[in-house]
Design a protein that fits this description.
This protein is α+β, with helices and mostly antiparallel strands. It contains 7 helices and 12 strands. Strands 1, 2, 5, 6, 7, 8, 9 and 10 form an 8-stranded mixed β-sheet that branches. Strands 3-4 form a two-stranded antiparallel sheet. Strand 3 and strand 4 form a beta hairpin. The mean pLDDT is about 85.
Length: about 220
C-alpha cells in the first residue's frame, strides 16, 4: 500500500508529463486504428468494385495508374493499345473472355467509357454479381446510343429517350463538345455502389464516330 501511495504521489507531482505521455499513447493508438481501417476499407472497396477478373491489360504505364483509370475512373489514360494487340489476348485459348474499354471523354463531370456488348454480359462486381438494367436495354447497332450508370441518371435527371452531348476530355467544364453527334439514352443500369454508377457507357463504334474527323486530339 505504501508503494502504491508513493507511485500516486510521484504521478501527481509529474501530472503534466504523465498527461502528455497518456495523450501521445492514445493518439498513436487512434492513428494505428485509422490506418488499419483505411487499409481494410480500400481492400473491401476494390474487391467489391470488380470480381471474376484475373488480368487488366493496357498500354505501357504504371500498374497503379492502369488500375485507377480502368477500374475506378480516376486519372487519365496514357495511350491506347492497338486493336490487333487486343485480339491477340482475346483469341488466346487460355482467355475465357476479354472486354475492350476506351476512356477519355466525359459528360458534365462524369466519365464516358466505350466498350462492347460483352461488358454487360461479363463484368462482375461484389460477390460475382452481374450488371443489370433497371430501365431500357443495352446499346445495339446504332453507335449513338448510351447506357447510364444509376448515379448519372439520378443526378442529371435523365430518362429513356433523352438526348445528351459528350465532351472531349475529362474536365467538369469542357469547351470542346461533340455537339454535332448527340447520343440517345437507351438504358439505365441498376445501382451497384461502384464506379459503374458514375459512368456513361457507349459502344466502341460510337467512341470512334465522335472522333472520326479529329486529328491529334482536336477537331479538323
Amino acid at each position: 500500500m505504501y508503494l502504491l501511495r508513493l507511485a500516486l504521489a510521484s504521478l501527481a507531482n509529474r501530472r503534466f508529463t504523465a498527461f502528455l505521455t497518456a495523450f501521445a499513447i492514445a493518439l498513436s493508438v487512434c492513428l494505428l486504428l485509422a490506418v488499419e481501417r483505411v487499409r481494410t476499407e480500400a481492400r473491401a472497396s476494390f474487391a467489391s468494385t470488380i470480381s471474376g477478373t484475373d488480368l487488366i491489360v493496357g498500354a505501357r504505364s504504371g500498374a497503379v495508374n492502369l488500375l485507377l483509370y480502368s477500374v475506378f475512373r480516376i486519372g487519365n489514360a496514357t495511350n491506347n493499345i492497338r486493336w490487333d494487340s487486343y485480339e491477340h489476348y482475346a483469341n488466346d485459348p487460355r482467355v475465357k473472355w476479354a472486354i475492350p474499354i476506351s476512356l477519355g471523354d466525359s459528360h458534365r463531370g462524369y466519365r464516358v467509357m466505350g466498350t462492347t456488348g460483352d461488358y454487360f454480359s461479363h463484368y462482375q462486381y461484389g460477390r460475382r454479381q452481374h450488371l443489370e438494367l433497371s430501365q431500357g436495354r443495352a446499346f445495339a447497332s446504332d453507335p449513338f446510343e448510351v447506357v447510364l450508370g444509376a448515379e448519372v441518371a439520378d443526378a442529371l435527371h435523365y430518362k429513356l429517350g433523352d438526348k445528351l452531348v459528350l465532351a472531349h476530355g475529362v474536365a467538369a467544364i469542357s469547351l470542346v463538345k461533340h455537339d454535332d453527334k448527340p447520343f440517345t439514352v437507351v438504358g439505365v443500369l441498376k445501382r451497384t455502389g461502384t464506379p459503374v454508377d458514375r459512368t456513361l457507357h457507349i459502344s466502341l463504334a460510337g467512341m470512334e464516330a465522335i472522333h472520326i474527323d479529329w486529328h491529334n486530339g482536336v477537331p479538323a
